[in-house]
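Sample pair:
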Amino acid sequence: MTNLYIDFDGVIVNSIEVSYDIFDKEGLEKTEENYQKFYSNLDWRKVLDKCEAINDSWECIGKIIASKKFDVAILTHVNSLPEAVEKVKEIRKHFRDITIIPVPKAISKTSMLKAEGAILVDDYVYNLDEWNEAGGYPVRFDLDMDGKGYPVIDRLDVLIDMFD
């Protein structure tokens, strides 16, 4: 069975959009230092309470699991331990048995597990570049269907027929 890793932010829920709105409302200057501090101290429960699933993502993941074609896990970058805790709580509302792998933001997703032969669905091209270099199968998630050189999807259940 092929390992399938699904990114959380910007793929399953619109947490990137929600957190950027909060950042903008705080009127912070858009610097790397400010982003780092902001995300490290962000109340992720409040963020996730405002988030919506992207294109029926929770139902799509259920369909993917039911297809028995993949060993599914959620692989997500985190800026803090409280962020990881809140993401796990959110995912557990939908799935009791899915594997969840929080990855510290300073570490590459490819450093956390064996990417070779595995599929990664992510919205961030840099993660896909690293995944590809490590011998994995990168798939870009993008609502505008801009793959930026990678196979692209805008709905997760498309993966069932994409990998036969």
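Residues 2-13+52-162 form a domain with the Rossmann fold fold (CATH 3.40.50.1000).
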